[in-house]
């Protein structure tokens, strides 16, 4: 319990004697929140993470080489609302990697937010990373309102354009959301075999009711519902994917996804943001990844964000997909039990040390 060093007011039957204390508490709380936001925005709100080094068995890669095929390439979006989550994700990836110096991070940001890369490099001065500007204007006109406003952010659709955003020399990438942490070596995930002709790999969840991801309008139209004919389509979460960018470019899969988004603007065929176009193009045609690499749904549902437990089985990656984010719940002093697994990776520096 925090103490503000204030004496208790004299007993009184009038609530007006409490007003100065209430106002002072509000001022202190608001000042702290403002300072936190300001510090975070200018890059001084996060602690510097320890440096992690390669094990002796790691291949040697030049620090300046951002194209090496021996490196593990990781793509993540970068924006202010999820910055704290991104920092924690990076920290977890490096801490559990056997070859952390061989990881190349590619951060995708809107032009107005590219300065956030300075925040990343101030906490990880040794990080091998690049910032890639994503022009959100073309995709903004294709976005349809979904069941949660956070899903409507143009940057949430950057994964559709990775093959165009990242340099052509990057042939394969692990795409990760910002609301997750790894507790295993990312090199094992990146080494997932894609097989012949497969463009991406992700954990599949065939027990999920696949029909719920599309509207009755979609299923009532034979020309549309036949899209999945013979594909054994299953749900997969797009927050963790291994993508062969060369095959993506060769198949022009960005255009295929955009065509479904254009149709969605004309006749509503789904409700859930950027996920359904991926399902329409890839479901039933992806390489399998063990479920331990995406223990998703820890943020609860898209409406209330209630607490959830882990799925049965081993865990290599914890993913707070859904409305509830661990940093928000921790700040509100209403954490879920599993949020304690995220907290050790939180690099936010508290600007004021209140007496406890």
Automatic annotation (TrEMBL):
InterPro entries linked: Glyco_trans_8 (IPR002495), Glycosyltrans_8_dom-fam (IPR050748), Nucleotide-diphossugar_trans (IPR029044)
GO molecular function: glycosyltransferase activity
Keywords tagged on the record: Glycoprotein, Glycosyltransferase, Membrane, Signal, Signal-anchor, Transferase, Transmembrane, Transmembrane helix
Principal subcellular localisation of the protein: membrane
Subcellular location: Endomembrane system
Superkingdom of the source species: Eukaryota
Name of the protein this chain belongs to: Hexosyltransferase
UniProt lineage: Eukaryota, Viridiplantae, Streptophyta, Embryophyta, Tracheophyta
This protein's encoding gene: LOC105126519
